[in-house]
Amino acid sequence: MIFIKTPEETKKMRVLGSEAFNILSSLKKSSKPGMTTRQIDELAVIEADKIGANLSSFGYYDFPGHLCISLNETVIHGIPDDRKLKKGDMVSIDMLLDRDGVFVDTAITFVVGGAPNKLQKKLMNVTREALNLGISNAVVGKCVGDISTAIQTHVEKNGFSVIKDFVGHGVGRHIHEDPQIPNFGIKPGLGYPLKKGMTIAIEPMVSAGDWQVEVLADGWTANMVDGSLSAHFEHTVLVTDKEPVILTNKQKSMEVM
User: Fold this and answer.
1) Start-to-end CA span in the chain (Å)
2) 130/26 Cα distance (integer angstroms)
3) Contact between 230 and 208 (Cβ < 8 Å)
4) Are 139 and 241 a contacting pair, CB within 8 Å?
5) Conformation bin of residue 191: beta by default, left when phi > 0, alpha when psi is -120 to 50
6) Burial class (CB in 10 A: 0-12, 13-18, 19+), 118
7) Residues 6+ apart with CB under 8 A from 26
8) What is the DSSP letter of 33?
């Protein structure tokens, strides 16, 4: 079901989204070689407790972590564990927060312990750019297909692949709401029409190699079949009849982290 949010709900989401931005920024700064992904997860619990929010992934369909933390060839749904970060690892953190009846969803990718190499830098830049292009189409008068096409076109013209096993989605009153927001495959002007007051999670997941993934025996961890690097950026966005509003950003700017 698609939910049109009230001004009160979007105000709550904007405040919570700004706090989510702060938490992800803090986790990025704290992530050092030698730390485990479980320690990052524990830091997130402390930060969420400070603002009276819940990390919504924990227990969702029995997911065992508070965050999804994915390294290198893991594109999504990595489970926090005792694996230690190494210098040069690409880390994607996907975080769901809820408080007072609203949810926000956001993700970043970064490199631990120094500057990214040439491939990592390009992959992250292209994925961020694709997210911004998708967001720019989240306005009344556009359709889901306009978001999908903008993302896929930008990714593929830069020589990368869009993951096709996972998609963005509505979010706000629930973790997952309609409509689905694919990063591929829908032509401009097609798909569900965007309406004022919708809140959607736009989240390009991009591989430096082929798009195919395999889910491991834990039922969650999704790795690139060819072992290629992957990146994931996400924002929760409010659809308006003027400009899209990024709810999970500290800045008014549309730029992502």
Assistant:
1) 30
2) 24
3) yes
4) yes
5) left
6) exposed
7) 43, 47
8) T
Percent of the chain at pLDDT > 90 equals: 95
Which residue's structure tokens are 């809820």?
Answer: 98
Average pLDDT over residues 165-186: 96
User: The tokens of 65 are what?
Assistant: 């972590």
Using an 8 Å Cβ cutoff, are 162 and 211 in contact? yes
Which uninterrupted H or E stretch holds 69? strand 68-71
pTM: 0.95
Distances 254 to 53, 101, 157, 158, 164 between C-alpha atoms, Å = 25, 26, 22, 21, 25
Q: Where are the alpha helices (DSSP H) in 96-143?
A: 118-136
pLDDT at 44: 98
Nearest to 207 by CA among 159, 255, 168: 159
Contacts of 16 (CB under 8 A, 6+ apart): 53, 97, 98, 99, 102, 104, 247
Give the integer Cα–Cα distance in Å for 222 and 69.
11
